[in-house]
Amino acid sequence: MFGTAASGGSSSMEPTGVVHVNLMFYVSALVVLTSLGALYVKYAASKSKEYDLYAPRQNGTQEQQAEGPKVSVLFGTQTGTAERFANQISEEINERYPKVKAAAYDIETYDHENKLEAEELALFCVATYGDGEPTDSALNFTTWMGDLVSKGEEDGSMPLKGLKYGVFALGNKQYEHYCACGKLVDRRLKALGATQVIERGEGDDDANIEDDFAAWKEKLWVELDNLGYAAATKMNGANGHHANGNGVAVKKTPSKAPEEFSVEKVAGTASLWRFDKAEIGPNSPVEVPVSERRELHTSESDRSCIHAELDISGTNLSYETGDHVGIFASNPPELVSEALKRLDYDGKSFVKLTAKPGSKLSKLMFEGKAMSIRDLVSYFLDLQSPPRKESLLALAACASDPKEKARLEHLASKEGRDEYRSYILDDLRSLLEVLQAFPSAKPSLGVFAARIAPKLQPRFYSISSSPLKHPKSIHISCALVEGDSPTGRYHKGVASTWLSRCKPNSSKIAVFVRKSNFKLPQKAEAPIIMIGPGTGFAPFRGFLQEREAQASMGGAGLGEAHLYFGCRSRTKDFIYEDEIMGWKESDVLSMLNCAFSRDQAKKVYVQDLIKQRAQEFYRLIGEEKASLYICGDKNMAKDVNLVLHSIIQQQGGKTSSEAEGMIKDMQTEGRYMRDVW
Question: Is the pTM of this model over 0.90?
Answer without folding.
Answer: no
